[in-house]
Automatic annotation (TrEMBL):
It comes from Celeribacter indicus. This is Mannitol dehydrogenase. The keyword Oxidoreductase applies. One of its GO terms (molecular function) is oxidoreductase activity, acting on the CH-OH group of donors, NAD or NADP as acceptor. Pfam families: Mannitol_dh, Mannitol_dh_C. InterPro entries: 6-PGluconate_DH-like_C_sf, 6PGD_dom2, Mannitol_DH, Mannitol_DH/Oxidoreductase, Mannitol_DH_C, Mannitol_DH_N, NAD(P)-bd_dom_sf.
């Protein structure tokens, strides 16, 4: 049965569907980046509130700024912006249709429709999921990259921007000039201090074309930090077949695990939904939650996905079944990552590592190593290297983290150990493959990529270990290197 408002009452009884009247919803949020994660996470929390009779004036308007977003818009519009969420729990699989999204802005060059929609007074939050590498951060300084071609364009053409941030700046100018007031900018990406990063990008971009507007944004808009967590695989043929098993024709279903967490700084200049009533946590110490999740979960993903790719293990749960990769995960997490993570009210670091191990091992979640290994040039500096720096400062081990970096360098060679090729899997793949080939002969060359490693090339305890491990990986193979680390 094709998913739509008209067919909702006729879906199979086993499928949960919205109990609220979607025709009575009104918009309050524009969300840019309508990928699977948003629909399984932020959208789900809002759906749960709406099921309680709350937040009916906070419905979501979807948006995107890239040409491929138009394909998603058309698919969503054809099914009245409904999404089937399929929970993949080892104890059983269940399906639920969620309906807090009620519209999707047409995707067009110059983003005029998006600017105008964000300028409407009923929009009080503009949220984003645009990936960790999408915030125009200068990799060398970690500040705003004012020289990026997209930013140069938006500064020169503020009313026809290419980027989501340029569109936000233009909308905020309209809101100021019309007396509408500010909105909250809410990042939902895996970045330490993601709200501060979003503030930096929006305010810095505004300053390039309109310094007075930048001052107004800085004075009146808020950008709360948040930690988001739910494992959500990409949708492919298996997922499309699975939703049909529930009797639903959904072009964009989403599968997800049976765990979610959302910790949010309560800093909203124009109001917000009561997400805490749906299980989210408002906290003044988001940083502690961020650190635990980014270091242990996201860092742990990098620990296992790169060796998984090199050794032709297709899924994350498959990596956890692999005796060497899972043992690598356990030792690196407990000896080299966990010592630098503090407890939060819900978890000790030990408990959180145990939880992540169970989540990664869920065989129902078909999360590919390729997806998790994507964009290592952003993820290693964000998720792995902070633990390296903490370990060097504290005098704790960094051997395993050096091995993880060495295996990533081996992965970027572009071939697996079974001689199969690796399709490009990083925005800087061409540059990385050249460096990886050079590092096969001279390992230190890899660390001289200062945009990623900074001064770690000059830290002998890490650099020497990295060079030793990479030489061993190339000489004897990844499994031999992991065995040597585990035996040490």
């Amino acid at each position: 049965m094709k998913l739509s408002n008209d067919t909702l009452p006729h879906l199979p009884a086993s499928v949960r569907r919205p109990s609220y009247d979607r025709t009575r919803l009104s918009p309050g949020i524009v969300h840019i980046g309508l990928g699977n994660f948003h629909r399984a996470h932020q959208s789900w929390y809002l759906h749960r509130l709406m099921e309680q009779g709350l937040a009916h004036d906070w419905a979501i308007v979807g948006a995107g700024v890239r040409p491929y977003d138009e394909t998603m818009r058309q698919k969503m519009a054809a099914q009245d912006y409904l999404t089937t969420l399929i929970e993949l729990d080892p104890a059983g699989t269940s399906a639920e249709v969620v309906g807090p999204m009620i519209d999707y802005v047409p995707v067009e060059e110059g983003n005029g429709a998006l600017i105008e929609r964000m300028a409407q007074p009923e929009i009080r939050i503009v949220a984003l999921t645009v990936t960790e590498g999408g915030y125009y951060i200068d990799p060398a300084t970690k500040g705003f990259d004012a020289l990026h071609p997209d930013i140069v364009h938006d500064a020169a053409n503020p009313w026809t921007p290419r980027t989501a941030f340029g569109a936000m700046v233009a909308a905020l100018k309209l809101r100021r000039d019309r007396g509408v007031g500010p909105f909250t900018g809410q990042s939902c990406d895996n970045l330490q201090g993601n709200g501060e990063v979003l503030r930096q990008t929006v305010v810095s971009l505004a300053r390039l074309s309109d310094p007075e507007l930048a001052e107004w944004i800085e004075a009146h808009c808020t950008f709360p930090n948040a930690m988001v967590d739910c494992i959500v695989p990409a949708t492919g043929p298996k997922e499309l077949a699975l939703v049909r098993e529930f009797g639903i024709e959904d072009e964009v279903p989403v599968t997800h695990e049976n765990f979610r967490q959302w910790v949010i700084e309560d800093n909203f200049c124009a109001g917000r939904p009561d997400w805490d009533r749906a299980g989210a946590t408002f906290s003044d110490d988001v940083h502690a939650y961020e650190t635990m999740k980014i270091r242990i979960l996201n860092g742990g993903h990098q620990v296992i996905s790169d060796p998984g790719e090199v050794l032709s293990v297709e899924t994350i749960s498959g990596c956890m079944e692999h005796p060497l990769i899972s043992a690598l995960f356990e030792k690196v997490e407990r000896e080299e990552i966990m010592p630098h993570v503090h407890a939060v009210p819900e978890f000790t670091p030990e408990d959180y590592v145990t939880l992540i191990k169970a989540r990664f091992s869920n065989p129902k979640i078909v999360d590919t190593t390729r997806r998790v290994a994507f964009d290592g040039s952003s993820r290693h500096p964000g998720f792995i290297l902070p633990s390296v720096r903490d370990g060097l400062a504290a005098g704790t081990p960094v051997e395993g983290l050096a091995l993880v970096s060495a295996i990533w360098a081996r992965y970027c060679l572009g071939t697996r150990e079974d001689s199969s090729g690796v399709a490009p899997n990083d925005p800087f793949w061409a540059e990385l493959t050249v460096l990886a080939a050079q590092a096969a002969e001279t390992p230190q060359i890899w660390l001289e990529n200062r945009l990623i490693y900074g001064d770690l090339a000059d830290q002998p305890r890490f650099a020497d270990a990295f060079c030793r491990w990479l030489a061993l990986v190339h000489r004897d193979g990844t499994e031999a290197a992991i065995k040597a680390y585990l035996a040490a």
